[in-house]
């Protein structure tokens, strides 16, 4: 028996919707079978809380008197983009500060703003007839701004590589510290709780999908950058390499600093931990069978990050159950595995989103446009010659 | 005989005084200097593993405090700030002795008695929730 978005939303409004997390649903499907479980459960919540570098905020400061057309902008010493209209800017999460470098970057400013802290805004301009001010130095809070919203071009990767280091030197990477001589393996996923692994063919997640975003209700605004739906898949359709990504949008003024945090990867740079939860409507049995996936059936590859090339050697295909077990055997050697994204926080977010839906505070939004399947990613060719 | 780890902090005026000598001579204590550090303000920090009779250790600590030296019992030179930690697990990747590990429900746990003080976890923590006390 198929259900529509409208029917599920009516159940949510009546407080009758059955909502469970993507971990809880596994047992329900085992006990009742896919058909009965699909009739019983209305919404499955998924979540992730991990480092997502391709993130940032659009901010509008309002006009000073006399007004300025902000050209060079720093917020708490972190440079923000001055190539928009007079008092609009985009602050990128990975931008390091002038004084503290990667230890305090754009992501930390975004966290501080959401936490309600005052930040130091400095701007310069060449001055124009309509915007005569040339310098500005002031302090602002999130509540003082006209608009402040996160617009993250690439979040919630559908699957990602596990990392290992085959060289004799320690490596400092965005996959954490990798010990020499294959000393450890790191991985970053919420696995069976991960949003896009529960909807591998993007049957329900598309442009306009309403989501939990940093503690606020946000939306999927577009396909994420490096969107790769032409990736290798297993017979059921689950990606076995990095696959789809999402661009997300949400109001910073409604966010909770607990779910948006600045991060530092030693020797690499600043990043941002982003908390995202996505509800999956159980419209039919096919969708229920997708969300019933377990870590033992989800695979990724252990990639050697010591090779400084775009295509790095793939040492082994492993399941997320193996990675979660604490060690993986490679060439007869047992190698310790460690996570980089917080499953504990992801579980908290999935439970929080479930509560919102159960309380009738959050309704499902049907996508206004689906994302393309079979979309491959391109590399960048380096072309010789000074002029063309 | 017992063994314990203590962290001493010397104010500027105490730097250079032979306190260690007193501990050996008057309180019969045996110790290992695990780490020593003097900052730009001539404030000194000393991490000691001391061995002796419990009463002598107690008396030695009283003597040090009377001389304006801060004394703190510690197990490990690193501390995890639970308000900042998100239990991501990045620190467990570099902790070779399992002093930092994930529990069955994927929370971080710090077994401070296992720490070998390599300090790699301080660098590995993306939240900068782990800091060295020395």
Given helix and strand content, the structural type of chain A is alpha+beta
Tally of separate helices of chain A? 6
Helical run tally of chain B: 3
Uncertain spans of chain B: none
Strand order, largest beta sheet of chain B: 2-3-1-4
CATH H-tier superfamily of the largest domain in chain B:
ACT domain
Q: What is the level-2 CATH architecture name of the largest domain in chain B? A: 2-Layer Sandwich
Strands of chain A, count: 24
Head-to-tail CA distance between termini of chain B:
26 Å
**Mean pLDDT reading of chain A:** 97
Class by SSE composition of chain B = alpha+beta
Shape of chain B: elongated
Helix fraction of chain A, binned, reads 10-25%
Mean pLDDT across every amino acid position of chain B = 88
Low-confidence stretches of chain A: none
Q: Tell me the domain tally of chain B.
A: 2
**Major protein interface:** A-B, 28 and 18 residues
Gyration radius of chain A (Cα, Å) is 22 Å
Q: Name the overall outline of chain A.
A: globular
Describe this structure in words.
The complex is a heterodimer of chains A (388) and B (134). Chain A folds into 2 domains: 5-52 and 151-358, no CATH class; 62-145, no CATH class. Chain A contains 6 helices and 24 strands. Chain A has helices at 5-14, 24-40, 106-114, 285-291, 320-324, 343-358, and strands at residues 19-21, 43-51, 56-60, 72-75, 78-80, 88-92, 96-97, 101-105, 119-124, 135-140, 147-155, 162-164, 171-173, 176-178, 185-187, 210-213, 216-223, 246-251, 260-265, 269-281, 299-304, 314-319, 327-330, 333-339. In chain A, the strands form 6 sheets. In chain A, strands 1, 2, 3, 6, 11, 16, 17, 18, 19 and 20 form a 10-stranded mixed beta sheet that branches. Chain A has a 4-stranded antiparallel beta sheet with strand order 5-4-9-10. In chain A, a hairpin with a 2-residue loop joins strand 4 and strand 5. In chain A, helix 2 (24-40) runs antiparallel to helix 4. The mean pLDDT of chain A is 97. Chain B is α+β, with helices and mostly antiparallel strands. Helix content of chain B is 20%, strand content 32%. Chain B is built from 3 helices and 8 strands; from the N terminus they run E-H-E-E-H-E-E-E-E-H-E. Chain B has helices spanning 19-27, 54-66, 120-124; strands at 2-10, 30-38, 44-52, 70-73, 78-80, 100-102, 108-110, 130-132. In chain B, strand 6 and strand 7 (108-110) form a beta hairpin. In chain B, 30% of the residues are buried. At the A-B interface, strand 2, strand 14, strand 19, strand 24 and helix 6 of A face helix 3 of B.
């Amino acid at each position: 028996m198929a259900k529509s978005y409208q029917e599920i939303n009516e159940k949510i409004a009546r407080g009758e919707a059955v909502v469970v997390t993507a971990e809880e649903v596994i047992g329900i499907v085992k006990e009742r079978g896919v058909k009965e479980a699909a009739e019983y459960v209305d919404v499955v919540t998924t979540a992730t809380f991990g480092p997502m570098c391709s993130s940032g905020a659009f901010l509008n400061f309002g006009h000073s008197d006399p007004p300025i057309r902000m050209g060079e902008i720093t917020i708490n010493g972190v440079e923000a983009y001055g190539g928009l209209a007079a008092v609009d800017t985009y602050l990128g999460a990975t931008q390091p500060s002038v004084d503290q470098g990667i230890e305090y970057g754009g992501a930390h400013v975004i966290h501080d703003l959401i936490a309600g802290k005052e930040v130091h805004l400095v701007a310069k301009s060449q001055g124009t007839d309509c915007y005569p001010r040339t310098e500005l130095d002031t302090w602002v809070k999130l509540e003082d701004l006209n608009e402040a919203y996160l617009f993250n071009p690439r979040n919630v990767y559908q699957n990602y590589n596990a990392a290992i280091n085959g060289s004799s030197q320690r490596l400092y990477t965005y996959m954490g510290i990798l010990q020499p001589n294959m000393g450890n393996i790191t991985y970053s996923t919420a696995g069976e709780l991960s949003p896009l692994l529960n909807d591998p063919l993007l049957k329900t997640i598309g442009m306009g999908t309403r989501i939990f975003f940093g503690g606020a209700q946000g939306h999927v605004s577009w396909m994420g950058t490096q969107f790769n739906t032409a990736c290798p898949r297993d017979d059921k359709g689950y990606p076995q390499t990095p696959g789809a990504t999402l661009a997300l949008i949400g109001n910073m003024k409604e966010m909770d600093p607990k779910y948006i945090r600045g991060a530092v990867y030693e020797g690499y740079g600043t990043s941002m931990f982003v908390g995202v939860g996505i509800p999956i409507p159980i419209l039919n049995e096919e969708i229920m069978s997708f969300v019933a996936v377990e870590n033992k059936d989800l695979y990724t590859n252990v990639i050697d990050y010591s090779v400084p090339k775009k295509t790095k050697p793939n040492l082994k295909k492993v399941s997320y159950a193996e990675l979660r077990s604490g060690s993986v055997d490679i060439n007869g050697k047992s190698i310790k595995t460690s996570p980089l994204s917080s499953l504990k926080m992801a579980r908290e977010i999935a439970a929080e989103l479930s509560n919102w839906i159960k309380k009738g505070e959050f309704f499902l939004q049907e996508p206004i446009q689906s994302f393309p399947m079979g979309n491959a990613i391109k590399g960048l060719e380096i072309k010789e010659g000074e002029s063309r | 005989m017992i063994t314990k780890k203590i962290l001493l902090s010397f104010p500027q005026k105490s730097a250079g005084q032979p306190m260690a000598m007193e501990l050996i001579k008057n309180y019969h204590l045996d110790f290992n200097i695990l780490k020593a550090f003097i900052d730009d303000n001539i404030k000194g920090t000393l991490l000691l593993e001391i061995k002796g009779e419990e009463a002598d250790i107690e008396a030695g600590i009283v003597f040090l405090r009377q001389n304006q030296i801060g004394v703190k019992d510690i197990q490990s030179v690193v501390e995890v700030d639970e308000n900042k930690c998100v239990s991501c697990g990045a620190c467990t990747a570099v902790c070779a002795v399992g002093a930092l590990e994930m529990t069955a429900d994927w929370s971080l746990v710090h077994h401070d008695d296992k720490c070998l003080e390599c300090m790699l976890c301080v660098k590995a923590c993306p939240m900068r929730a782990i800091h060295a006390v020395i």
